[in-house]
Amino acid sequence: MKRLLLFGLLLAASSAAPATDLLDVFRQALERDASWAAARAAYRAGIERAPQGRAQLLPTLGLSAATTETDLALKTPTVNNTFNYRTDSYSLTLTQPLYRKQNLAEYAKGQSGAAQAELDLAGARQDLALRAAQAYFGVLAAQEAHETAVAEKEAVGKLLALARRNFAVGVATRIDVHEAEARYDTAQAQEIAAASELEVRREALRAIVGEAPTALAPLVARLDLGLPEPADAERWAATAQEGPRVKSQEQAVAIAREEFEKSRGGHYPTLDLTAARTYTDAGGSTFGTPVESTANQVGLLFQMPLYQGGNISSKVRETAARLDEAEQRLDQARRQAAQQAREAYLAVTSGAARVRAIERAHASNQRALESTVLGYERGVRTGVDVLNSQRELFRARRDLSQSRYDHLVSRLRLKAAAGILTEQDLEDTNRLLAH
To answer: How far does Cα 312 stand from its chain's mean position?
Structure first.
């Protein structure tokens, strides 16, 4: 008795535990998804390009120190002596670039690199939101498909048992029994396949959140099957061309352009302001006396490259080709963004129409099955007719479930394709779930 009571309490506690919803999955993914963690690490690395580029315009300060031992044998017509002494020295040198075309290009490249890192992170966050939603609804769809397969097998099993009883009393044919057996075997195979697919979907969600998913909040609210706002595929395509992924490629073009300017800067002269302080303390000299000196120097250093074996010209040609490549990839990114937005828009509109059509088909199949069962009871329809009606009803049920989840994901995918998917969109979708 105590064991039954304890089991009942545990069962009540487990049933009272809240189900995991879409926002829970997304927040877990923000903490545990490996791709998102890699994107954040890439962002932290990418934003360091800005201070690295800025450093090219700032002065450099260096300190050097040395100590040496000298053993000098000096022999002249008047001197024949050996000198042994130590020399200590240090030098403090400051260099401020005044004009270096390469450094200016490196600074601009660093700014573009940091901006690109921010855009890439924004795109990765949207990608994570979409992947989390796809995995979440993938599990729900697989669960419903498995439940439908189990229900279909049970329904066919009941008809099989009925066919066998009717055959035993002579009111059904062997054909009815064989047909019911074949349908039951098929239903078993479908149940096994549905269970396997459910495990695959669970593993896909586990890969994102880092642990086995618990009970998920199911979809309970009726879907909004209206047109997206704005109801214009071209406006969505135009928005997509301004999204973070296209903007990131624009920064890639800017980086390639600055790299080209940097390579061209190899032909340009450089001008630096230099300042140095040098101190030397020699314990001896060729004159036999110690020497201590301090020198302060300020000057301008001009350098002009004349010939470097064709290396600079080759780099200019290489970076020019890289710039052309980046520009072509930008054009490709814009076209792909527009294409994906149009396809996503079409998926939303056609998906809504498909949900409506399957809802009508499901209702029609439900009525058809009821009529067929009634006809079977009256002897005007056969068991095969009932099996066929059942099959069509369960097929419509599976299709309806899948189409509803596909429509939800399509709406989120449209926002992601346009580059405007936010956590608020997930919150709006999350309100359709049972809590």
So the answer is: 38
Which helix or strand (DSSP H or E) is residue 81 part of?
A: strand 80-99
What amino acid occupies position 181? E
H-helix or E-strand spanning residue 126 = helix 101-169
Q: What is the pTM of this model?
A: 0.85
Name the stretches of the chain with pLDDT < 70. 1-17, 74, 78-79, 284-288
CATH architecture of 20-56+100-268+311-430: Up-down Bundle (1.20)
Burial of 9 (0-12, 13-18, 19+ CB in 10 A): exposed
What residue type is 38 in one-letter code? Answer: A
In the chain, domain spans? 20-56+100-268+311-430, 63-99+270-303
Give the pLDDT confidence score for residue 225 in this predicted structure: 87
Distance CA 179, CA 220 (A): 36
Which strand (E) or helix (H) includes residue 265?
none
Of 391, 154, 185, the closest CA to residue 177 belongs to: 185
Spatial contact of 397 and 190, defined as CB atoms under 8 Å apart: no
Q: With contact defined as beta carbons under 8 Å apart, do 257 and 323 qualify?
A: yes
Q: What is the pLDDT of residue 87?
A: 86
Per-residue pLDDT at 287: 60
Instruction: Output the six-digit token pair for 164.
Output: 């066998």
